[in-house]
Amino acid sequence: MQLNFDKGNGLLPAIIQEAGTGKVLMLGFMNAEALEKTIATGSVTFFSRSRNTLWVKGESSGHCLKVGEVRVDCDADAVLVVAEQLGPGTCHEGYHSCFFRRIEGGELVVAEPRTFNPETVYGNSKTSSPDPPRDSGPRS
């Protein structure tokens, strides 16, 4: 398996897509070790750029991502992980997807309801978007 970790200074962008729905759940980064661990264990593992260490998605929340398959893009410098979400949400802010906002009129608008209370899950607020969703028409 020949992947190009050089373009991203040793990291590959890893897009996480929900199996069944095709919804994009999150974007993280993997180094070679994180990718190997993801494939070996079946649990999505990332490399934390801020902590400079590996972390398994769901290790603190219990909202794990079970790997279905890993795909590689045409340039071999990004991966798509198709996974099953185990738990009510992927986002640490309490949403099913980390892509819960959209740009509307130059503003960020919450486009989905929260699926869990992050304060209950994490013990303290890790959120930066406490506003409830605003209904502003059909969602695509």
Number of domains: 2
Could you list the spans in which at least 5 consecutive residues all have pLDDT below 50? Answer: 129-140
Strand percentage lies at 25-35%
The general outline is globular
Helix content: 10-25%
Structural class by secondary-structure content: mainly beta
Span between N and C termini? 36 Å
Q: Which CATH architecture of the largest domain would you pick?
A: Roll
What CATH calls the topology of the largest domain is: Ubiquitin-like (UB roll)
CATH class descriptor of the largest domain = Alpha Beta
How many strand units?
Answer: 8
DSSP helix count? 2
- Rg over CA atoms, rounded to whole Å, is 16 Å
Secondary-structure element series: EEHEEEEEEH
Major β-sheet profile: 4 strands, mixed
Mean pLDDT: 90
Q: Strand sequence of the main sheet, in spatial order?
A: 2-1-6-5
CATH superfamily of the largest domain: Phosphoribosyl-AMP cyclohydrolase
